[in-house]
Amino acid sequence: MNHHDYIILGAGPAGLQMGYFMEQAGHDYLILEGKDGAGSFFEQYPRQGTLISLNKVYNFFPEAEFNLRHDWNSLITHDSSHLFTNYTTDLYPKNYVLVRYLNDFAKKYKIKIKFNTPVKMIARQSNEDRLFVLTDHNGNEYSCKRLILATGAVKPNIPDVEGIELAEGFEDYDVNPERYKNKRVVILGRGNSAFEVANDLAGHAAIVFVMIGNRLIRHAWNSHFVGDLRSYNNTILDMFQLKALHTVTGTTLTKLVRQDNGTLQVHYTEELPHWKTPGTAFGWFEADHVIRCTGFKYAEPKIFADDIAPQMDAMNKYPLMNSSWESSTPDMYYIGTVTASRDKKSASGFIHGFRYNTRTLFRMLEEKYHQKAMPSDCFELTNEDQLQALGDHIINRLSMSSALYQLFGTLCDVLVIEDGKVEMFYELPVSYVLKDSMFANKKIIIFTLELGFDTFENGFEDSLNFIRRNDPERPANVAYVHPAFRLYEQGEYIKGSNTRSSVVTRFDVAADIIDGDLANIKPRNMLLNFINSIVMVTSTVYSLDHFTDDESRGGFKPWAADDPRIMNHGLQRCKMNADGSPLMLGPLEYKK
What we know:
- The protein is of the alpha/beta class.
- It has 13 helices and 23 strands.
- It is 21% helix and 22% strand.
- Strands 1, 2, 3, 4, 5, 6 and 17 form a 7-stranded mixed beta sheet that branches. A 6-stranded antiparallel beta sheet has the order 18-20-19-21-22-23.
- The protein is globular and about 85 Å long.
- The chain starts with a strand and ends in a 57-residue tail after the last helix.
């Protein structure tokens, strides 16, 4: 039997990323991959060949870490020597370029992969060793102490609808648009895959019906969630609203029936709560093609022996995981797109998010199984000079970190406060920090980058109409990405504060090149005042002036009380507490 300390299942981006860390650390590992190359998922997807992961090469600032914020396809290396941005300058690159990049990555870093090895069964020994045993399609067995699943999307999510087998699947429909010339095409779904297909067929099909069901489309520009409908895929919405025959409907498929002439009866229901007499309409119409684009499932319990099959969520779409991405089966972890099940607000479902989750999990594995402490830095904190040095470190960190930027509100840095000194830990899941005994029983400050559209009365519903900067007299009301810091003692939230936002989400001296108006001074001083209010090492209160009032660079002139413009920006009014006082920063949410 082929034995290793770690087996990683899948040589996609997540598997390669974990393999890189394992290789660099000298651990005993092996990646098993069912296909004959790395990144095989991207040989087929997206079906139209264009990725929606950004490849923004030119970002003014030179730092490699900062530029990773806008490079959504590169994997992390110790020296940034293998960047996807060196492969193409296309803002939306082609999938075959990513496949080439991933295979080059695997070869360059000598990652140990056994290709053409699809695994058919995963079991676990019942003896004291409790090794996982994986059996491939040829009956060969591989064993390991810890199993890491990087299997990505494992099968289509097929609705439980009578006649659904008559629909073509997103995974295998004919991508030649000539087939749909002057045809009536129904597309099931409301996400990027559905609209990718709709846009591709829009110039050939006679009419496209996108059936989104009884839920509204979530646009990424409003939700700020990278997995929601992206503008790149929404041409069909322009055509719908500009009366170009294609349509998006709130109907739900209930049945498909093949007619004698080869066409399909598409049976539906539609909820009509806005009618004078609310109710549900039902009926059917005729179509030539139905294509289901209803997503994927990210685990296949049938591959596991019954006693180690991971518990699944209510939709049987994702396996359940704790804050360390460990499944319900001890020593079995998930990485990659599947980690989006714990993160519905940032980027865990994409390379530019899960590359950081993977690094964090690797560090957790190092600590748990190899007694290697997670990365941290220690600082003395007994006087004002030391406070300012710590402030510089944190501000520079928040100005550079791609991990906190991409996984906003999901990953955090943590400052553990003790008498006369502090220790800072990096890139940990918020939910892990809030409950882990390493932090929960101490005095800590949690640092995140966050959005704050929900702190305005109507800003979150239509963030494209939000064009104002935050109010310095109401510091909790900040819409765009900004640093937030919260004090916890013995697991209890004590207080929080935050800075202003920034055009480039930098708060160091370099930010002044683009932002101006005290871009780095005020955020730095807000941070220093917050930390000092806890440790009390100086009597200095740092200035929070918002503008220089210097005509050469900018300033601020208040309006008169009766200025009519005061009433003309209601969409961006700040939320207030019930007593009329400014809204304050609240505690972080904990996800089990």
